[in-house]
Amino acid sequence: MSSKTISLKEETYERLRREKGEDESFSDVIDRFLNEEEHPLYGLVGLAADEEVEQIREGSRSFREDVDSRMDSENRTEQ
């Protein structure tokens, strides 16, 4: 089996070391985390109806446009 060398921050190495089981390699630990099917955010999928999601998107879009407009106005005033 081939291998690759990677650089890790000391803190990251220590976190992996703490997660590593007695019979596991570091590759096993990384594979375990990467293969986890239950991502913490998966539980949020499907909580909102499509109409609610669209309202949230529209509100977010309006908010960004409003902020952009205000920032443009302030930049023009400062110049």
Structure commentary:
There is one protein chain. The chain has three helices and no strands. Helix content is 62%, strand content 0%. The protein is mainly alpha-helical and 79 residues long. The longest helix has 29 residues, at 50-78. It has helices at 10-19, 26-35, 50-78.
Strand content: under 5%
Give me the Rg, rounded.
Answer: 23 Å
Q: What percent of residues adopt helix (DSSP H or I)?
A: 55-70%
Judged by helices, strands and strand pairing, the structural class is: mainly alpha
Order of secondary-structure elements: HHH
Largest pleated sheet: none
Mean pLDDT: 87
Shape: elongated
Segments where pLDDT lies below 50 for 5+ residues? none
Distance between the termini: 62 Å
What's the number of extended β-strand segments? 0
Number of helices: 3
Keywords for this entry:
mainly alpha; about 80 residues; about 0% strand; 3 helices; single chain
Provide a concise account of the structure shown.
The chain contains three helices and no strands. The chain has helices at residues 10-19, 26-35, 50-78.
Helix-strand layout with pairing:
Layout: H1 10-19, H2 26-35, H3 50-78
